[in-house]
Amino acid sequence: MSTATDPSTWLDKYGDLLYGFALKSVKNPDLAKDLVQDTFVSALDKLDTFKGDSAVSTWLTAILKNKVVDHYRKASTRTTSSTDNLEEVVNAQFNSFSIWRVFVPNWARDPEEAVEHASFIETLKDCLKKLPELSRQALELRTMEGAKTADICKILDIRPSNLGVTIYRARMALRTCMERNWHND
Q: Residue 49 belongs to what domain range?
């Protein structure tokens, strides 16, 4: 067994790399640690199947990616029903002719300037936390990670048409929350 495939060296050699990837993917330090730990356990169980065609770090990262996908799939099946209340938010925004019911206020700020204010960032984070898990994950994967539709659909185990509606509803709910909670000084 080479030192690269020696499990006793994995944590020192690949722990930071895997943790960084997991943290970027799930944005939760404790969950990221758990996913890395699960990755090492799975790799240990499957060590006899590792052929050495790729680097150990690549192999471990692939296992971790599957762990992240599994996490999002499980989370999306637990929260699918919670998106129903978003339909109420969307219906409250538009009339039967798809015209805005309420005048959209001008936030009177350059978006780049608004982002520099701590109150905006805190309000945005709070509003994102209030979204149903599936909606938040879809919005973050699309907007913050720049993930492609096919990848997001695979991770969340939803259809592309469902993704479009989910992201739209999430944006509407986020907008409503921001308008209610962020005070433009």
A: 7-78
